[in-house]
User: Which sequence fits this backbone?
């Protein structure tokens, strides 16, 4: 009996050891949590990493910008960690901004994406963006704007459903996937700092296996989103004599293969609301004009894409059933340039 | 009846535990298209083996595998079951180490792995020492808290799905059947433990079939979630595709911003129960063959397992050893049911023949 008591006491005592098992846990108030990571390169060829860190309890400044340089991104991040007052926790990074001179180098960009995906700390669901300006400038521009939060840069991409349908948000894992995909390329948003707002959306860079092929304007990018079957509710379009708002859209794609020549028929259905119109403009005229504009825009982009062998629409994916897995690897170079698209737009009034 | 439900729960938990970590990688290496074909083939093969196993066990009512082998002769038990038990040590230790690595990469990046290993070992050995009743009861508890998480993971990952990432179709002829990796794959479907519980409960094949269907559907989900999100070309470049798939999910309105945490939590539950079953198996086998207290065997062997888990130096070796171990397991999964079936058929057939005369 006495022996048993002793045993129980030891077991209870052992739990004390387990209780302090979290010896390496740093409390949240002892951590610095950066939200945005900027990556660029210095003139000397070293990587330069910029972090935007929210500052709490300070009225005049919402965030601070910290930079570090190193031969690799990891060493740059490590240097920032060394020099920081608190423990830096990279797990909450929401946006990664890459400067254009890095993004335009296929090898560098591929390595960055692979690093970000492989990193256990930086989450792969954080968004990516490219900027033509100095990364540091973009990240620090938040400080002289009125009424912004530290998270504004990230919020910019996450306005929610139909508030700003043009904005493409591209997470790291999608960019990583596009490095290996043989049928679908990806658009990475292009941003710069604004005068009154924190950021300005300039369009998107089109990447094929990590190489920038083209740059699309916001309205073109929006069409691509429609073709990828993302609902484009809320998009406002100006036709000169009227403005309309898209209230619903849906697309049906039907692939077919004749003599090894792919063709695709696609029906785009758009429902619109007329917001304003000039006197005497009929519904019919608005619908016809909108159909014409969208078709023109589509064939313009398609031609550019086919010339650069870049399948931003992901049309190749529709052919999974018709072309075998190994053949589909050559989709971009062998099939896509010959692709005939029968694109029809049907506009309806709400 | 409750015991049968509990056994079903254990069956599902063990399969999930083995299925989540190395299993998808193996499937992606085996084939580039029509992954479902591999899973269904493996499942059917498993089902056939289970059927043979059940038939073999039914020749000997109220006896478990060790009893039957002892009936064959002590030498048979030693030859067949000692290597099996030794392989179980390797399997248990490598399994727990692989899970530890995943758990570390999910939510304890700065904790040394030995701390987590010891904790997991401690709990599973304790459960194993308490015996089969405790294992079965805790299986229900773990099942109830793991399955909602599994379902949540499956449903929340739907937002990133792109159906067009997967090439449908059929591989004909199925070349993967001859691949050594397919043999390893078979080792992931462990049903051998069923034969060691039978002295108390008689198993019904129809009910096992229902559990088998659930397990196959879950395996399909485990393999297809990363495929739908990333596609075959990308998935082969990832070290842990399922974890990356969970990490890619971003639901802004959901109060938990990291789905992978759920995955980590459910892995902890799965690995504890799976390992306690493995240790308990070792205990019962060794106790009957060598007549030494089963707790002593469990403690001694789990200590060896802990040492093995601690000394494996890196992940690539770890996976290699794990595959070897599961290959050996697959071998036992073929040998033991067949041996039982043949022995049962031979001895009982003789008896029945006499009765008829």
Assistant:
């Amino acid at each position: 009996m006495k022996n048993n008591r002793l045993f129980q006491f030891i077991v209870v005592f052992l739990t004390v050891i387990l209780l302090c098992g979290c010896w390496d846990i740093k409390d949240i108030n002892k951590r610095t949590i950066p939200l945005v990571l900027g990556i660029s390169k210095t003139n000397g060829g070293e990587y330069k990493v910029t972090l935007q860190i929210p500052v709490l309890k300070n009225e005049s400044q919402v965030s601070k910008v910290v930079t570090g340089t190193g031969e690799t991104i990891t060493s740059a991040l490590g240097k920032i960690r060394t020099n920081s007052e608190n423990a830096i926790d990279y797990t909450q990074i929401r946006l990664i901004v890459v400067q254009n001179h890095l993004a335009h180098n296929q090898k560098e960009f591929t390595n960055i994406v692979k690093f970000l995906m492989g990193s256990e700390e930086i989450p792969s669901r954080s968004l990516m963006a490219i900027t033509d300006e100095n990364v540091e400038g973009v990240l620090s521009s938040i400080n002289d704007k009125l009424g912004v939060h530290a998270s504004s840069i990230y919020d910019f991409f996450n306005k929610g459903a139909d508030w700003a349908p043009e904005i493409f948000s591209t997470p790291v894992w999608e960019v990583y996937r596009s490095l290996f995909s043989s049928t679908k390329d990806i658009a990475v948003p292009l941003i710069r700092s604004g005068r009154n707002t924190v950021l300005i959306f300039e369009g998107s860079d089109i990447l094929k296996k990590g190489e920038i092929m083209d740059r699309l304007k916001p309205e073109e990018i929006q069409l691509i989103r429609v073709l990828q079957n993302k609902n484009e509710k809320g998009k406002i379009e100006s036709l000169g004599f009227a403005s309309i708002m898209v209230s619903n859209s849906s697309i049906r794609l039907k692939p077919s293969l004749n003599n090894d020549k792919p063709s695709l028929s696609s029906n785009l259905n758009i429902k619109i609301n007329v917001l304003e119109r000039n006197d005497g403009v009929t519904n019919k005229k608005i619908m016809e004009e909108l159909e014409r504009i969208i078709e023109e825009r589509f064939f313009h982009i398609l031609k550019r894409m086919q010339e650069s062998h870049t399948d931003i629409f992901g049309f190749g994916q529709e052919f999974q059933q018709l072309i075998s897995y190994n053949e589909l690897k050559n989709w971009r170079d062998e099939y896509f340039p010959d692709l005939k698209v029968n694109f029809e737009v049907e506009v309806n009034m709400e | 009846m409750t015991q049968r439900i509990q056994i079903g729960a254990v069956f599902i938990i063990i399969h999930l535990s083995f299925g989540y970590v190395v299993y998808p990688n193996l499937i992606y290496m085996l084939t580039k298209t029509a992954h479902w074909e591999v899973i269904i083939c493996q499942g059917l093969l498993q089902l056939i083996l289970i059927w043979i196993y059940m038939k073999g066990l039914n020749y000997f009512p109220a006896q478990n595998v060790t009893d039957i082998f002892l009936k064959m002769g002590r030498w048979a038990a030693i030859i067949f079951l000692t290597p099996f038990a030794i392989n179980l040590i390797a399997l248990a230790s490598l399994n727990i180490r692989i899970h530890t690595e995943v758990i570390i990469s999910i939510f304890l990046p700065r904790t040394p792995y030995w701390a987590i290993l010891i904790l997991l070992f401690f709990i599973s050995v304790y459960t194993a020492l308490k015996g089969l009743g405790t294992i079965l009861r805790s299986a229900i508890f773990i099942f109830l808290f793991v399955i909602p998480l599994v379902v949540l993971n499956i449903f929340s990952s739907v937002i990133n799905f792109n159906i067009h990432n997967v090439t449908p179709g059929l591989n004909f002829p199925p070349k993967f059947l001859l691949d050594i990796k397919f043999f390893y794959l078979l080792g992931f479907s462990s049903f051998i433990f069923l034969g060691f519980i039978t002295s108390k409960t008689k198993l019904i094949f129809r009910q096992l079939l229902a559990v088998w269907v659930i397990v196959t559907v879950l395996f399909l989900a485990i393999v297809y979630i990363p495929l739908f999100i990333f596609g075959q070309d990308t998935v082969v470049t990832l070290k842990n595709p399922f974890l990356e798939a969970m990490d890619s999910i971003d639901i802004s309105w959901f109060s938990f911003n990291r789905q992978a945490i759920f995955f980590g939590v459910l892995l902890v539950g799965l690995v504890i129960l799976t390992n306690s079953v493995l240790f308990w198996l070792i205990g019962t086998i060794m106790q009957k063959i060598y007549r030494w207290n089963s707790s002593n065997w469990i403690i001694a062997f789990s200590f060896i397992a802990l040492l093995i888990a601690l000394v494996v130096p890196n992940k690539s070796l770890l996976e290699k050893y794990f595959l070897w171990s599961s290959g050996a397991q697959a071998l036992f999964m073929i040998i033991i049911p067949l041996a039982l079936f043949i022995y049962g058929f031979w001895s009982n057939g003789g008896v029945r023949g006499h009765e008829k005369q």
